[in-house]
Amino acid sequence: GEPVILDEFEDIITYLLDNFYWGIRVHSSGIKYSQAMARAIEEVRGYMIISVDAGSREIYKKIKQVDCYDKVCNNIRKYALKTNFKGRYLVSGKYIIIPGINDNKDEIEKWLQANYNAGIWTTALDVEESWYQKNRNNIPEYIFNLIRYAKKRSDELHTNFEMYERLENMLEDEYKKTGRQIIKLKMPEKI
Fold it and tell me: Global pTM?
């Protein structure tokens, strides 16, 4: 669930900050802005991953079932403004590829541009869990092309590109199966 909506969230994060905790990592939808997390980011003691999963209001609403895309983008900008050079990677925009919904270059490009324009230096990519489990042994080529595209554009925008473990496993499986390296990563030796 969404941790930021918990009544005690602000108090818990404030307590951690007041007692010198570091490395506070929060995954969020970004719908609700947290002053405490903004402080954690500003003090380079917290990390926020905001899963937008869309580059447009229409696709966001289709995925999330709420019309909050503009609000989330505004909150991302507000968090990004709390970063400094040292903390520029402390706000990350996440995109979960959901085949049949947001699995196209246009939507990914809009998402990358929105992150860049908001001042986010880190983009994180993943693929939807249940789809991955069903298709693990037969990943369509266009999914690999989307990953290549997101990595290439992140490099061109000079942003940090991260992949979640599921995506890394998918690329490692493909490498073991075919010897193809979809994007430049450290891959295990082919067996």
Answer: 0.89
